[in-house]
Known about the structure:
The complex is a heterodimer of chains A (202) and B (759). Chain A is α+β, with helices and mostly antiparallel strands and 202 residues long. Chain A has helices spanning 18-27, 62-66, 92-96, 132-138, 150-153, 165-179, 188-192; strands at residues 4-8, 37-41, 49-53, 72-74, 80-82, 160-164. In chain A, strands 1-6 form a two-stranded antiparallel sheet. In chain A, strand 4 and strand 5 form a beta hairpin. Chain A is globular and about 50 Å long. Chain A starts with a strand and ends in a 10-residue tail after the last helix. In chain B, 28% of the residues lie in helices and 15% in strands. Chain B is an alpha/beta fold.
Amino acid sequence: MARMKFLCDAERCIECNGCVTACNNEHDVPWGINRRHVVTLNDGVSGEKSISVACMHCTDAPCAAVCPVDCFYTTPDGIVLHDKDLCIGCGYCFYACPFGAPQFPEGNAFAERGKMDKCTFCAGGPLPDNSVEEYRMYGRNRIAEGKLPLCAEMCATKALLGGDGNIVSEIYIQRITKRGGKSQAWGWETAYHFKPAKEKNP
Amino acid sequence: MDGVANTWGYGAMTNSYNDMRNSKAMLFLGSNAAEAHPVAMQHILRAKEDGSKMIVVDPRFTRTAAHADIYARLRSGTDIPFIYGLLWHIFKNGWEDKEYIARRVYAMDQIRREVEKWPPEEVENVTGVPKEKVFEIAQTMAKNRPGTIIWCMGITQHHMASHTTRLFCVLQLALGNIGVSGGGANIFRGHDNVQGATDVGPNCHTLSCYYGLAEGSWKHWCRVWSLDYEWVKSRFDMTRQYDAGGGKTAYTMNMPGIPVSRWIDGVLEDKANLSQRDNLRAVIFQGMACNSQTRGVEMKKALEKLDLLVISDPFPTHMAVMSDRKNDTYLLPTCTQYETYGSATASNRSLQWREKVIDPLYESLPDHVILYKLAKKLGFADELCKNIKVTNDEPLIEDLLREINRGAWTIGYTGQSPERLKLHAQHRRTFDPRTLKAEAGPCKGDYYGLPWPCWGKPEMKHPGTPILYDPSKPVAEGGLVFRANWGMDYNGQSLLAGGVYSKGSELKDGYPEFDAEILKKLGWWDDLTPEEKKEAEGKNWKTDLSGGIQRVVIKHGCAPFGNGRARCHVWTYPDPIPVHREPLYTPRFDLVKKYPTYPDRKAFFRLPTRYASIQSVDHSTKYPLIFTSGRLTEYEGGGEEQRSDAWLAKLQPEMFAEVNPKDANNAGISDGQYIWLEGAEGGRIKVRAMVTQRVGPGTVWTPFHFGGWFQGKDLYEKYPQGTAPYTRGEACNTATTYGYDSVTQMQETKATLCRITPA
């Protein structure tokens, strides 16, 4: 079975925030929530690198492991989704996530944060596909329409790749073969237990 | 653009974004493509992955520089010395393309003499770029050919801009990089139809498609428009001639108008000093971002002096709120490009047909409807649209393009009929992203969007010219040579190419531009049809409306505009060979004596224009820091459209100024605090400080997209209810200063002075 993955190629990311804007608009997320961020290291000096980060839809998702109400589930495509009707907004997943993906819309008294929100790989949630309720709670379900995540589709430089993990790997391997550098598939070791060298990959 | 056109014929990007995939070296000067042209970056980064060397030279370590193999920080406004520094190494090491220069270039020897004045030490002293770095860049460009040079407004918005762009062309000529795939002068235009607007539209110094303003030019277009020349003439002030500069006088009909960069002075300048009857008293601003124009404080005065102000835009602009006008001010809600359709011309001279996405929102109207309605009120709507079908006050867009096709022979805007462009749009997928060529399908053989020149009538099916001046292809298949636009010879040297010609040419040497007489001499006249003969008699390739001259010339493998040499020496320019001149507001006043600007001019585009009277004072004691500006990805131009978009506004919520830690410490400023940035003419803006090494010590940078504040005050309450953009901030140009290009009057925005204090 194919398995969906994200990969951001830091050699190509130019911090244009096109992915962030595409995501915000496609899912009409409230102000203050960013399902996707662009993080820049060494801003303004030699060695500056930018990378676009969202939920990586991990193989053994740590968020799911710590969730006290077990609201997470993984689709047959390897996409990690959650059920907002079960979520109690405790924030454990935020501490467990290596990518800072979970977002909380509110900051109220007694640390009440509201239901967690995160990147769905444009795959909606547990409600009926492409229903009004699904769109309202989880955003657009492009996967159900046979389309890939909009952030990667709209990436100007094709730094951000999203889709079938094998195809994503293939495109990236072609690039690094050309560049002659070593693989820097950022986040893959953490998210997908990927071993960069000759070790056998899952 | 004028500098480029005066070098080899056309003022446009020679190659394309896509063709940069074939470059072995890419030199960016005054271009921050990662933020200004993010989509172009996919071609650039692909070239880099294929081994191309990417070089960025900029006062600021931009996001483009972050991806470069070599980065050099140079002082704003010293691009000419930097290029001479490169040429010094190129000539010294014999890296120039000698054969190319001998056959295709005029007066490179005069450049060599100027280069001698720029040894490495002097280049380092003036530009601030270490001499080892200059050598490294020169060597990289020489050893990695073909290489391309990319520039944008960081170069064109200087008082030396036309000379700078010309010298960039000279560098590329010295390396033999023009007219080859992977080479070229790739000038990135700011937004989707800048090239098209320049080609067909709102220039104050020429009629459409660079025909100029001479009587013959008017007569040509009058024939295209089916108008009586005498009627058109009667619309102008023919009572007297005015000072046209350089000791000449002219009627206003034949004299460049006041350029958009100088409209303020058209309003404020003493009437007696103008080369026209009166000051500007009513102005219509159509899609005009006044916050991207310099001298905001004086602009406010000019706005308040106008009798009538009309702003036609999708959003109320900074201009709508910045002044204290009370009456006679109109906002015309105008459509965006998504609410209408038609063709737009990209940087690479390709035309793209686009569809309407939605009907116009609210009561807004498309630009061409507004113009038609205005002409109707003024009483010349019928003349405006004589050959154009009008339905419910809307001129038919297809007919507008057909009229351009009928008249625009100079730049080959003639073959791109609406039908051909629609076919391209429909079969977009059949075009190759590297070559732009369709290898199969109904557009087979065409280049995407028929990049101009697309010679002859549409029926001739010229495929467009993907790379200008590339002789490796026949003209009929998109090949070309340098234009012979300046006669046969000058000062005893030939201006025609020497033994170079485009593939398949029947003339195996240089030749002048074609007219009816030359066709007769060559015995090609009888290749014309009887109808073509009737029209072409006494005409030339630019004025023959039958297209016969172009058709026959191309049939014989030749270029209609002749086969000339690219010029290093432009005798009509203030500096025939580019020389360095310090910015009017320079931080290096010690260099002014050696590299002074021009004397003031009395009549230049109808206005007095100051140079030396500004530069002769040392402003740097009071204003010690260089002040320059640039783009953010989130916003474009004046930013009204994007600052009114929630998703973009939240990414760049506040106006800021980048300040080097050293300057911040000296001024007692910490990161994130409000500061006053005061320009050298006293305009003040209140902005957040972003303390960063992105700018070098001595340079302050701001984005230019903000508006809605004026000298510390938020103008929120002045917007019509519900229309204020989410993000408002100071327009950086409230603090910018005087300074205009000595050929085009383009404004100086990139090299002035300021000081900063905590607010």
